From TrEMBL:
Pfam families per record: Abhydrolase_1
Source species of the chain: Streptomyces viridochromogenes
Designated name of the protein: AB hydrolase-1 domain-containing protein
SUPFAM superfamilies attached to this UniProt entry: alpha/beta-Hydrolases (SSF53474)
Source organism superkingdom: Bacteria
Annotated AB hydrolase-1 domain residues: 51-297
Length: 310
């Protein structure tokens, strides 16, 4: 059984009605392109003092995934929310689906080098968490601590014995395909609502922003490739990794696994299992789905700060 991270005191979330728009939440942050040796990376950056913290989104996502987290975290860290390679407005050329996670990892290392850091803190959500596993296995010396948020769909054990999640994930492929091939407000909204435990927690401005990003021709071409839509088979490459379950037994970075109570497809016991496999701490978010950083931002910010500064 994994150790559970404990906060020093409980967190009271601000009412959702008091959360600002994405633009308001990111006021004072800098959006810029960082030119690496091989690729360019779009980042939203905040903070000047403190250790570097890189934050990577899920598949099909973009840096604004962390709009409600950057300013609070910037009080303790120099935070970079990043458009992953092949996503958003970062470099997109050269995607090889069977090697997607290795290529994403190469992009992270390229960015760390371009920023001039020897090592960093890392937070990854969903695809970003799976990417974090790849990084910890192949580049452990570059990461001081990690927070992995609702990943570990890869190299998974027989799911027999795990509790059934409160919401299924079987329609993710269909929702993703429609959002990319027909990026209407309705289709984008349906895909984004999959991420949260209650539909009313996804805002109109996030839907509008993602529709704008998905409607960009270059972004759309890349996402069709990321989701393998031109071949008509969503998902098989998402489960291909260049490591084995045994590789996880020699895990090095100190790590926290976080998981939403209503995460679609995989319940809390599944997340806690993976935390135990890699010797990580575990933190469950009550009343949250796949995006606890969005639904429970004050608690999420407190959890990351507690773990990364202890």
């Amino acid at each position: 059984m994994a150790r559970h991270l404990q906060l020093k005191e409980p967190v009271t979330e601000r009412p959702y009605a008091e959360w600002g728009t994405i633009a308001a939440e990111l006021a004072g942050c800098q959006v810029r392109f960082v030119e690496g040796r091989r690729w360019h990376h779009r980042v939203i950056e905040a903070g000047s003092d403190g250790p570097p913290l890189l934050m990577y989104h899920g598949i099909g996502g973009h840096a604004e995934t962390f709009a409600r987290n950057l300013r609070a975290l910037s009080e303790h860290f120099h935070v970079y929310a990043v458009d992953a390679r092949f996503h958003g407005f970062s470099s997109k050329a050269g995607l090889d689906l069977p090697r997607m996670y290795d290529q994403l990892a190469d992009g992270v290392i390229d960015l760390i080098d371009a920023l001039g850091h020897r090592s960093v803190f890392y937070e990854g959500e969903s695809m970003g968490a799976q990417l974090g596993v790849n990084l910890a296995v192949h580049h452990p010396e570059r990461f001081d601590r990690m927070v992995l948020n609702a990943g570990f769909y890869l190299n998974r054990p027989d799911r027999a014995g795990f509790a059934t999640a409160t919401r299924g994930a079987s329609n993710l492929g269909q929702l993703s395909a429609l959002a990319v091939t027909e990026p209407t407000v309705e289709n984008i909204g349906n895909r984004l609502q999959w991420l949260v435990s209650r539909p009313d927690r996804m805002t109109d401005d996030m839907v509008s922003l993602r529709q704008r990003i998905y409607s960009d021709p270059e972004v759309n071409r890349s996402l069709r490739r990321v989701f393998n839509l031109d071949e008509g088979t969503f998902g098989p490459h998402l489960y291909e990794q260049s490591y084995t379950h045994d590789d996880l037994k020699s895990w090095r970075p100190e790590t926290l696994v976080v998981w939403g109570e209503h995460n679609p497809g995989h319940g809390l016991d599944y997340g806690e299992y993976w935390a135990d496999v890699i010797g990580a701490d575990f933190y469950p978010f009550a009343d949250a789905g796949h995006w606890p950083q969005w639904e429970k931002p004050d608690e999420f910010n407190a959890v990351l700060t507690r773990f990364l500064t202890r």
